[in-house]
Amino acid sequence: MKKLAIFVEGKTEQIFVKKLLREIAGRSNISIEIQSKEGHKIATLIMKDSVTSATKFYVLIYNSGGDSKVVSDMKDQYNSLTASGYETIIGLRDVYPIPISQKSRLQNGLHSSLPKGVIPVDIVLAVMEVEAWFLAEWNHFFKIDISLTPERIQTELGFNPQTDDMEQRPHPAEDMEQIYNLVGKYYNKSEKQLNRLASNLDYEFLYIKLAKNVPSLGEFIGYINQFMTP
Question: What is the pTM of this model?
Answer without folding.
Answer: 0.96
